[in-house]
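Give me the fold.
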Amino acid sequence: MKLFVVLSLCIIECLSVDYLQVSVDNHGAYNLSINGQIWLRSSHTAIYVDDRWYSSDVNTLKFENLSYAQGTDIYLGAWNETQLNYDLFHNGTHRKIIGSIRQWISISAITFHLNTGELPMESTVPLEMYRVRTVFPGFLMEQFDENDNRGYFTFHGRKDEK
């Protein structure tokens, strides 16, 4: 988490961003805008449990509603948070999954958090090292027009050769 915060702060400062904003609609879709222009639009949220993907795009991870929180971090200051509340029906039990989008007030930065609660994320068939178990945040990789030169990077583990 700290790595993401540092990277997001570095990227934002390097871009000389005046205003970074996140907007969330009542269906759980979110957009990141920089200086009033949309840069990223959300994709689906998903979680891998017991050898199966549960996903918001096929309603196996059902979006329920939004909630809000506020707080203060001793290092980064005050924040406002939008919480996307999902219902995961798993092994006969409803479980609450919360995807949080935190916008910092004193700095131009946004962080993302995913709370799976007490849900053990186990499987009988282990995923390969380079596979993920959760998708949040998820963004569409799209080009808005022919002059759109935005790029992206991802983290990837190193697969040891045998």
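The longest strand covers residues 77-90.
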